[in-house]
């Protein structure tokens, strides 16, 4: 298992940070391939909490090189802040971090436009993280985006920024009626980001080619989750990138054959932040209990997460689109104390029962869950790290998920700390 992908199997916030950190031990490379600072990966080591938004979680392991791939969108302001925070906690950041020169830059106007776009959508708001993700990927697709390497070239940057500001300021001032941006201010800022980040900006495709060719162990770190994928998720309530497996190839410049095993991270129940359909959502006491016990508040925005039971229809779909071999089940301890645990095994849509995940989002909006009830366990699984100490109902629950998804269980997480992990395989 030398080249492993870790991918969110739900709507993000599955606990990928902890799983990546756990698996990163001894890995030569940890590489992120999609998304930007909309992610918030939390890792707790000996009581110290590290929250990573852009930098791969592998930065917390000595001897690991971290790569931010071309498929990412990078906000230099937030990256510099994150570097400073990690350094203040004693984390070394130097030649162990590489940022793709072709990753796109999130500019301040992207963040502003993210907020303004949300405002005009009114009730149909996506509930984005307001980090400028959608507008930055839109510019990438429109072929006007600014890439990291362009921060290092004064002339190219001037030309690109002048052009972009003409467009953005027209939109911001004349459509939204807000104040636009001054070229001089933004240009100087961008030049100074380039100067600070220069040592990290590299040809990461070439680095990855060398890493793959020389047989290095690689962990591909997913951000967000399958259901937030722009192509395979619950469009339009999705992010603007491909967190699913295909994003690894496009977002790092490695062939699909450079992935040996795919681990889907599955929270033992379901959460979602922002708008959009969520068939198993519990809006009453059960939802509150899951939120309180699970500390379900966004690592990036602090927003309370919507909570509900596990959705196996969506998980089986995630197993297929990502080719999952394994799952890592997180936050099992949050289900302590429930007499019975519900699992959605099918949807009812317009009176028809289906186990197939609808790719027609209009149908998915109407999906109602069909539940199977499984017995809960007595006592607590919190902090257990020995498989034999898990109650048999807890093991049965995890095996039920894995069998239905057609995958093996790699590990189960029973708490936020590194050591609160039960290794199955
Ligand atoms: P954006 O990625 O900020 O454009 O947000 C689009 C949707 O994806 C919103 O519903 C966000 O709440 C959600 N989202 C983006 N990143 C994450 C994440 O890391 N975890 C959970 N949800 C996310």
What keywords describe this structure?
binds inosinic acid; alpha/beta; Adenylosuccinate Synthetase, Chain A, domain 1; 21% strand; 425 residues; Adenylosuccinate Synthetase, subunit A, domain 2; globular; four-stranded mixed beta sheet; ten-stranded mixed beta sheet; Adenylosuccinate Synthetase, Chain A, domain 3
Strand content: 15-25%
User: What is the CATH topology of the largest domain?
Assistant: Adenylosuccinate Synthetase, Chain A, domain 1
Number of structural units classed as domains: 3
Structural class: alpha/beta
How widely separated are the two ends? 11 Å
- CATH architecture name of the largest domain: 3-Layer(aba) Sandwich
CATH domain class name of the largest domain: Alpha Beta
Structural notes for this entry:
This protein is of the alpha/beta class and 425 residues long. The protein folds into 3 domains: 160 residues, Adenylosuccinate Synthetase, Chain A, domain 1 (3-Layer(aba) Sandwich); 93 residues, Orthogonal Bundle (Adenylosuccinate Synthetase, subunit A, domain 2), CATH 1.10.300.10; 158 residues, Adenylosuccinate Synthetase, Chain A, domain 3. The protein has 12 helices and 20 strands. The strands form 5 sheets. A 10-stranded mixed sheet has the order 9-7-5-2-10-1-11-15-19-20, sandwiched between helices. Helix 5 crosses helix 6. The radius of gyration is 21 Å and the shape is globular. The mean pLDDT is 96. The structure holds inosinic acid (IMP). The site of inosinic acid has 21 residues, from helix 4.
């Amino acid at each position: 298992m030398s080249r492993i992908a870790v991918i969110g199997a739900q709507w993000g916030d599955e606990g990928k940070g902890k799983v990546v950190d756990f698996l990163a031990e001894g890995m030569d490379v940890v590489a992120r391939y999609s998304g930007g600072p909309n992610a918030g990966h939390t890792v707790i080591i000996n009581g110290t909490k590290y929250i990573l938004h852009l930098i791969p979680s592998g930065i917390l392991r000595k001897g690991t090189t971290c790569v931010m791939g071309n498929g990412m969108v990078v906000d230099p302001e937030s990256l510099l802040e994150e570097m400073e925070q990690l350094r203040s906690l004693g984390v070394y950041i130097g030649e162990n971090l590489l940022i793709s020169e072709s990753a796109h830059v999130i500019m301040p106007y992207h963040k502003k436009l993210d907020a303004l776009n949300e405002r005009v959508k009114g009730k149909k708001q996506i509930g984005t993280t307001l980090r400028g993700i959608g507008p930055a990927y839109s510019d990438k697709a429109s072929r006007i985006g600014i890439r990291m390497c362009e921060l290092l070239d004064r002339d190219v940057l001037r030309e690109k920024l002048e052009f972009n500001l003409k467009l953005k300021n027209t939109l911001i001032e004349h459509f939204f009626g807000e104040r636009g941006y001054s070229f001089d201010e933004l240009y100087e800022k961008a030049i100074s980001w380039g100067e600070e980040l220069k040592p990290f900006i590299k040809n990461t495709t070439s680095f990855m080619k060398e890493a793959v060719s020389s047989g290095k162990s690689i962990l591909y770190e997913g951000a967000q989750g399958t259901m937030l994928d722009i192509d395979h998720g619950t469009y339009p309530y999705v992010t603007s990138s491909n967190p699913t497996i295909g994003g690894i190839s496009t977002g790092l410049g490695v062939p699909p054959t450079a992935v040996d095993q795919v681990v889907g991270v599955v929270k033992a129940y379901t959460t979602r932040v922002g708008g959009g359909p969520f068939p198993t959502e519990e809006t009453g006491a059960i939802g509150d209990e899951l939120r309180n016990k699970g500390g379900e508040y966004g690592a990036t925005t602090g927003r309370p997460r919507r909570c509900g039971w596990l959705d196996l229809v969506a998980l089986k779909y995630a197993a297929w689109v990502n080719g999952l071999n394994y799952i890592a089940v997180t936050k099992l301890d949050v289900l302590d104390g429930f007499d019975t645990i519900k699992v959605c095994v099918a949807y009812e849509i317009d009176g028809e029962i289906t186990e197939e995940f609808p790719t027609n989002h209009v149908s998915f909006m109407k999906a109602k869950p069909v539940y199977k009830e499984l017995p809960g366990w007595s006592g607590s699984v919190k902090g257990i790290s020995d498989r034999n100490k898990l109650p048999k109902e807890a093991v049965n629950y995890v095996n039920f998920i894995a069998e239905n998804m057609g995958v093996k269980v790699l590990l189960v997480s029973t708490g936020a700390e590194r050591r609160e992990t039960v290794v199955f395989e």
